[in-house]
Amino acid sequence: MPAQSAFSAFHHRTFAVLWTATVVSNIGGWMYSAASAWLMTTLEPSPLAVSLVQVATSLPTFLFALLAGALADIVDKRRLLIVVESFILVSSTALATLVWLHLITPGRLLFLTFLIETGAALTAPAWQAIVPQLVPRQDLPEAVAANSVGVNISRAVGPALGGVMTVALGIAAPFWVNAGSNLGSIGGLLWWREPQTGQRRLPAERLASALQSGVRYARYSRHLRATLWRAVGFLLFASAYWALLPLVARDLKAGGPRLYGILLGVIGASAIAGAFALPRLKKGLGPDRLVAAGAIGTAIALLLFGLARTPAAAIAASVLAGFSWIAVLSSLNVSAQFALPEWVRGRGLALYLTVFFGTTTLGSLIWGEVASVAGLPAAHFLAAAGTLLAVPLTWRWKLQTALGIDLTPSMSWPVPIVIGHLENDQGPVMVTVEYRVNPQDREAFLTAVHRLSRQRRRDGAYAWGIFEDIAERNRFLETFVVESWLEHLRQHERVTNADRMLQDHIHRLVESTPKITHLIAAAVGEGAGRSHRPA
After folding, report:
1. How many whole angstroms separate alpha carbon 357 and alpha carbon 47?
2. What does each C-alpha distance from 338 to 281, 342, 519 come to in angstroms?
3. Residue 206 has pLDDT above 90, yes or no
4. Residues 6+ apart with CB under 8 A from 304
5. Which of the 8 DSSP states describes residue 428?
6. How far apart are CA 245 and CA 268, in angstroms?
7. pLDDT by residue (tens digit) across 39-78?
């Protein structure tokens, strides 16, 4: 199969338009983010106070991303994005006004930063979840990589431009540019029309149920869990240089807002350069070794930041940090995207973002406190040691293992036959599947059916078991329980082609077609539905 072009995603007009709009918005966002961190060094220059800007930036995603992911899966993504981007515009304008009028305080800065980033947290899963709607599946890795490049373009341009603008026009200027830059995203979303995916056969999930099913999916999806653990192992320590970079820029000779913007710009520019080298590196190393190499590069960058005494040394560290950052983050993002079917994509990506920003928040607090107690160099050296140690400790969790798996719905489960009428909220529902297993295939069957248990739980079951008849050897009864009849019907729509392959394998190990029975909790005075049907 020929390699995809790094620019193949841009052949799709909608992706190109929205990508451009978000890059413009992100440039404004990085200008304001850099200006906020620098502003705090003038309002309250302690390491902990400065690191709290990073906390206010990352904490909202940790708190609200899962809620945002559930909303992205159950409401119109385009409308959600338009409403919340408008909220970000209003909040950004309020912050710019306070800075311009010299009414800003450390508390107000942190509060409004928290509000703006809450809006960003509510849109992040939806922005990521619409990517598969903008490009075909074969161009998805390139689209994910292009989004990473876009973030790093804005990171390269925004802080440097913000530093120059702060010196030339005053500290309020980057905040005003950020407020105006959101208009591009809103305009792009108003222009785009979300493609129709067909009439929804079942009612949309309720918010609480959607949250629960998203967490359950992540718990039983080994592909997504592996990505989350690798992200924790890297971000807990890599967050140190992001949280402490304003202080590094301040303490260096000839330091100031311009140098801080330059350092952020160099990180972004290096990440862009790294993105163009990624296809060759991925082919030669594979995702796991590439992430390990990026972690080692990050550790070296942390050491260089700790040793830096001149701007040139800090710039050299920034070059290595940016290249390593894109190598790790691009691999993690692609791994998360491919681990998720469409029905839970928003929630799964939200969990990834929750872990991402939760770990970054925790790391920022830790390294800000360590720097306060032990000094900047010691904080960088300890973070570098932790980054190296995390590589062998997280190696067991492999990345992008779902890359070749077909997670499109198979729609292979037959519609249950029901006598009488069932309300959607009736339940719980217990499903039993009776198997008569070939004696020579007993062990293979038990191995396969325990793998099947993860699918049942991932797609909605809260209890599962496999039982053997004590009076008839090799007769097994699988049982699983879901909370309602509607939730069981959703299970029918969640079964993927990959799931069907495992089920077909199990069917080849049994003597006859399994018999499926649906049982619903009965109450006095109520009718109950019951059905028997071959699989």
Report:
1. 20
2. 19, 10, 35
3. no
4. 313, 314, 316, 317, 320
5. -
6. 14
7. 888 888 777 787 788 788 878 877 887 888 888 877 788 8
Contact 302, 29 (CB under 8 A): no
Is 445 within 8 Å of 476 (Cβ atoms)? Answer: yes
| Beta pairing class for 475-482 and 463-468 | antiparallel
CA 367 – CA 386 distance, rounded (Å): 12
Secondary element (H or E) of residue 516:
strand 515-520
The per-residue pLDDT for 529 is: 44
Predicted structure pTM score: 0.71
Query: Which pLDDT belongs to residue 481?
Result: 93
Report yes or no: 529 and 455 within 8 Å, Cβ to Cβ: no
Instruction: Give the C-alpha distances (Å, rounded to integers) separating 296 from 99, 234, 324, 392, 402.
Output: 40, 10, 8, 11, 25
Round to whole Å and give the CA distance between 44 and 508: 69
* pLDDT-based confidence at residue 447 (cuts at 50, 70, 90): very high
pLDDT bin (cut points 50, 70, 90) of residue 5 is low
Strands annotated E in 80-146: none
Work out whether the CA dihedral 416, 421, 426, 432 comes out positive or negative.
negative
Sign of CA dihedral 19, 161, 148, 182: negative
- Distance (Å, rounded) from C-alpha 220 to C-alpha 239? 28
Higher pLDDT, 475 or 134: 475
Residue 1 confidence class, pLDDT cut points 50, 70, 90: very low
Distance of CA 48 to the CA centre of its chain: 27
HSE-CB of 73 using CA atoms within 13 angstroms: 29
CA–CA dist 429, 313 (Å, integer): 64
Q: Which helix (H) or strand (E) holds 479?
A: strand 475-482
Q: Which amino acid is at 292?
A: A
Q: What is the mean pLDDT of the chain?
A: 83
d(CA 211, CA 67): 7
| Sheet with 475-482: strands ordered across | 463-468, 475-482, 429-436, 515-520, 530-534
Token pair for 480: 């699983």
Residue keyed to tokens 């109450």: 523
Q: Please name the residues in contact with 85: beta carbons below 8 A apart, sequence gap of 6 or more.
A: 119, 123, 182, 185, 186, 189
Residue 131, both tokens: 């990517």
Tokens of 50: 């400065």
pLDDT tens digits, one per residue of 401-414: 777 777 777 777 77
Let me know: does 31 contact 162? Beta carbons within 8 Å: yes
